[in-house]
């Protein structure tokens, strides 16, 4: 796997945020597949940013891996918070792995929030699975709202 220190810039960019645990992963995967394919086909989204910290992002990575077969032009970038993740188990589903220097210079506890801020700021579309009003995914969701990003929340608890 190739490690880049800069993010690609092609068409539009989409990122994923969700809580660590997903109850009905089969249903979420189907929803996610439909939403992401719609973004690729009708909204010119071709770059997808993943953190792979929880179930939702892992499901998103699997969906992107499937869609990459049908749409080979899309790019999947995994944005890491910790350098030791580079030595992982080889399960990262990405074309590129990115360890941001600004994120890696933060204290360990602050790296995920810093990465999430960076990812929200560089995304045109946020696809999320937010069902409680707290946690890192919810904080990223709030930032996306303030930045007037297009938000698709698969839980449909809040009106976007």
Overview of the molecule:
The chain is of the alpha/beta class and 160 residues long. It has one domain (2-153): 3-Layer(aba) Sandwich (Rossmann fold). The protein has helices at 25-42, 55-70, 101-104, 108-121, 136-146; strands spanning 2-4, 12-18, 45-50, 75-80, 96-99, 125-129, 150-153. Strand 2 (12-18), helix 1 (25-42) and strand 3 form a beta-alpha-beta unit. The longest helix is centred in the N-terminal third of the chain and has 18 residues, at 25-42. Mean pLDDT is 79; it is low at 1-9.
Number of domain units: 1
Give Rg in angstroms.
14 Å
Strand count, sense and closure of the main sheet?
7 strands, parallel
The low-pLDDT segments are 1-9
**Class by SSE composition:** alpha/beta
CATH domain topology? Rossmann fold
- Name given to the CATH architecture: 3-Layer(aba) Sandwich
CATH class assignment: Alpha Beta
Number of helices: 5
Query: Helix share of residues?
Result: 25-40%
DSSP strand tally: 7
SSE succession? EEHEHEEHHEHE
Shape field? globular
Concise synopsis of the structure shown:
The protein has 5 helices and 7 strands. With 160 residues, the protein is α/β, with parallel strands linked by helices.
């Amino acid at each position: 796997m190739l490690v880049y220190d800069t993010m690609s810039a092609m068409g539009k960019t989409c990122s994923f945020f969700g809580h660590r645990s997903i109850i009905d992963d089969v249903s979420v995967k189907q929803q996610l597949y439909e939403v992401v394919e719609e973004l690729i086909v009708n909204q010119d989204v071709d770059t997808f940013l993943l953190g792979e910290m929880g179930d939702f992002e892992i499901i998103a990575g699997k969906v992107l891996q499937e869609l990459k077969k049908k749409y080979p032009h899309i790019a999947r970038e995994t944005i890491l918070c910790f350098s030791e993740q580079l030595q992982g188990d080889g399960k990262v589903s990405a074309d590129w792995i990115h360890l941001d220097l600004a994120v890696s210079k933060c204290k360990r506890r602050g790296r995920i929030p810093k990465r999430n801020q960076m990812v929200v700021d560089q995304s045109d579309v946020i696809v999320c699975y937010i069902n409680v009003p707290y946690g890192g995914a919810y904080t990223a969701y709030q930032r996306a709202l303030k930045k007037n990003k297009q938000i698709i929340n698969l839980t449909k608890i809040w009106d976007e």
